[in-house]
Automatic annotation (TrEMBL):
This protein's name: TauD/TfdA family dioxygenase
The entry's keywords: Dioxygenase, Iron, Metal-binding, Oxidoreductase
Domain of life: Bacteria
Molecular function GO terms recorded: dioxygenase activity
Listed Gene3D superfamilies: Clavaminate synthase-like (3.60.130.10)
Domain TauD/TfdA-like as annotated: residue spans: 9-280
Keyword Plastid in annotation: no
Protein family according to the UniProt entry: Belongs to the TfdA dioxygenase family.
Amino acid sequence: MRIAPNNSGLGARILDLDLLKPLSPADFRDVLRALGQYGVLCFPQQDLDAAQLADYGKRFGSLEVNVANMFFAPGFPEVMILSNKRDAEGKPIGLNDAGQGWHTDMSYSHDIALANVLHAKEVPLRDGRPLGDTQFRNQHAAYDDLPAEVKERLEGKVAIHDFQKFWDMMRIRPGSIRPPLTDAQRAKKPPVRQPIFRDHPITGKRVLYCNPGYAMHIEGMEKDESDAMLDYLFRHQTQAKYLHSHAWTPGDVLMWDNIGTTHNAMADYGPDEPRFILRVQVMASLDYAALAA
């Protein structure tokens, strides 16, 4: 196994590792450490089915079954299908995740996620160029670069994160097939309190854990003050130096840190440019500091 970091400081390629085979204890530790250090890991030239992808994800923690998941691999509700393809009757076969806007999965939940693991089976191409990049921003670096007075002002503060904010934002996008959340779904994911700064479970370092997809307001602040501070934090994250964009190739397994990064799926492909990706989400359910030691 070899680790080839990207020049941007965010992202690395993990080479000479076959994910069809169980990870050795040493390889597991090295992958976990790399996830904390580089944030986004690409394992190229893999060929996993839904069961095998789930088995890999489970090595790092329990797998989430999404409260609103409409599309999953048969027999595997924890394996979501992300796709713009349709069946013979014209019905969607997957959730089209493109153009979601910047967010951090599961920040709307009391139990947060460690990582996403996506496996590309089909990637849209135009003139030989892959489309549908997934973009990332480095929240370790974003925290480090905050002015001291902002860190002091926000230390110990929490923001309210709400699943419905993101869901409703996606429903109004052109071509969306998302229905309104049911009362039962809403009850399963009520608004939650999340620390604006938190210690990363692998690195132990501070990260900025506040994203525009789900964060609603800062507890204890008047609305105008909270809106201004959230706007500042979200604009701070947009600096080019924090950005890494992954161009997909069929066979890629992409694993990213959901605590130390935010992400966004590019919507630059059309309905006649097929995309098909399998996805699992790993919850932060283990003692990662001990496992990475």
